[in-house]
Specification:
This protein is an alpha/beta fold. The chain is 28% helix and 24% strand. The chain contains 13 helices and 21 strands. Helix 11 links the parallel strand 20 and strand 21. Helix 8 packs parallel to helix 12. The N and C termini lie far apart (64 Å). The site of flavin-adenine dinucleotide has 29 residues, from helix 9, helix 10, strand 20 and helix 12.
């Protein structure tokens, strides 16, 4: 692992390196210079040292980590107001799959206040262990204590893989944990698989979504990935859970934080397309804004909501909260009806997890048909009103397809 090194013979203990470090990463202890977890390898100390006693030893010189020491998957269980968030159960599902392939175990990190019952619920999904950190100071997410506690646990149990939700909390915590552990992190993965040697293959869109990159962390451990809510299916409950809760001790010093919570106001969660069971989505094929009304009627008949592609948001015809795709929302409804949508990779990244995808497009070669379970080559301005009419009359949509 790369790290700062000091030649204690050359060092005069002048303290200039300590003063130069803006991160508190260098300390003078027992008549020697020591580097702490806060060191960012920025090299300001090297410049400040008058006797050239400090240097950066690169990982190539130090040698790769011993992978055999790292086993199993650790899932970060995000809780809000004492309730574990749904993305956690999705990560557990993937964690169990990856660990199963390697013949290893799945553990969960859960921190909060009075949350033992939530730890019990996590066990119902077949995880082997829940490391529970229960303390009033951990009720709300604060970055310093959460980072410190999680890093200490990781150093102790040495997981091979760490999975975290790509939520605002996960996006804040994961990079800090990765930096402290000096390991790699791949954000917003859309798919994860594992090689026989334990290397995690992390797939995510890159270069503006024009390629799906496969990223591996072959020389460092643990391997860390974040995944957005709804990208992976939820784990199923097991009939006979046999995991255990490990009550972890919390040192008062680990709870130190520069952040003081003066109050907490829960925000009202508006109904979102992310949770919708049925989505009727409009693409540029609607050609004019009136097309949205047409599709809206179909969504109403089905008890669903409207989604859109990015060009419609850019056009000002729809709100960003309705955008499905890589730079919008990721959805996993039971039914997704794509109307006049070509099936660009950036759009598909946000909807390919739908149980049933039905596409209507005039172009028989449109890529959307590659991901659709059912496709209809036709003009949406003919198909959609006919479908809505049949539903209004209480009929089955099959009638439209048989007539078409
Ligand atoms: C970094 C980046 C991020 C992006 N993020 C997103 C994202 O989050 N979400 C997203 O959607 N896009 C995103 N995009 C844009 C994406 O690349 C595509 O441009 C966009 O998805 C295309 O939208 P569309 O399918 O509506 O339009 P088009 O690609 O223009 O397709 C229109 C389709 O409608 C069909 N059609 C035309 N008339 C009719 C008709 N009368 N009846 C039926 N079919 C008809 C056509 O055959 C065509 O297939 C992103 C792009 C980049 C570079």
């Amino acid at each position: 692992m790369s790290g700062m090194r000091v030649d204690q013979d050359l060092c005069t203990l002048c303290g200039q390196c300590v003063e130069a470090c803006p991160f508190g990463g260098v300390e003078m202890r027992d008549q020697s210079i020591e580097f702490t977890d806060s060191c960012r390898l920025c090299r300001l100390c090297i410049k400040a040292c008058p006797t050239s006693a400090i240097w950066l030893e690169k990982s190539e010189a130090v040698g790769a980590v011993d992978k055999a020491q790292y086993k199993g998957v650790l899932v970060f269980a995000e809780q809000r107001q004492g309730k574990v968030q749904p993305v956690t159960y999705e990560l557990i599902g993937k964690g169990l799959e990856l660990a199963g392939e390697l013949g290893e175990q799945v553990a969960v990190f859960l921190a909060g206040s009075k949350i033992e019952s939530e730890a019990g619920k996590l066990l119902e999904y077949g995880v082997d262990r829940v490391y529970l950190y229960d303390h009033p100071e951990l009720e709300h997410f604060r970055i310093e204590p959460y980072t410190g506690i999680m890093v200490d646990l990781v150093r102790e149990i040495k997981p091979n893989i760490i999975l975290m939700g790509a939520t605002s909390v996960g996006r804040s915590l994961a990079p800090r944990v990765a930096a402290r552990l000096r390991t790699g992190l791949t954000a917003d993965c859309t798919s994860l698989s594992v090689k026989g040697n334990g290397d995690l293959v992390q797939t995510r869109p890159a270069f503006g979504g024009n390629v799906m990159a496969q990223i591996v962390t072959p020389r460092h451990r643990p391997q860390m990935a974040t995944v957005r809510h709804k990208v992976m299916p939820m784990a199923a409950k097991v009939t006979k859970p046999d995991g255990q809760i490990v009550h972890c001790k919390i040192e008062e010093s680990s709870l130190q934080s520069g952040i003081k919570i003066v109050g907490f106001k829960p925000y009202q969660v508006a109904s979102s397309i992310t949770d919708a069971e049925i989505i009727v989505a409009a693409g540029r094929g609607i050609a004019r804004p009136e097309g949205l009304e047409l599709l809206g009627e179909l969504a109403d008949q089905l008890g669903g909501v409207m989604g859109v592609t990015r060009p419609l948001v850019e056009q000002g015809w729809a709100d960003y909260t309705q955008q499905v795709g890589m730079s919008g929302r990721t959805v996993r409804p039971r039914l997704y009806i794509a109307c006049g949508i070509s099936g660009a990779i950036q759009h598909v990244a946000g909807m390919r997890g739908a149980d049933v995808i039905f596409a209507i497009n005039t172009d028989p070669d449109a890529p959307i048909f590659d991901v659709a379970h059912y496709g209809l080559v036709g003009d949406l301005y003919e198909v959609v009103p006919a479908l809505t009419q049949v539903l209004k009359e209480g009929g089955s949509p099959n009638a439209v397809f048989q007539a078409g």
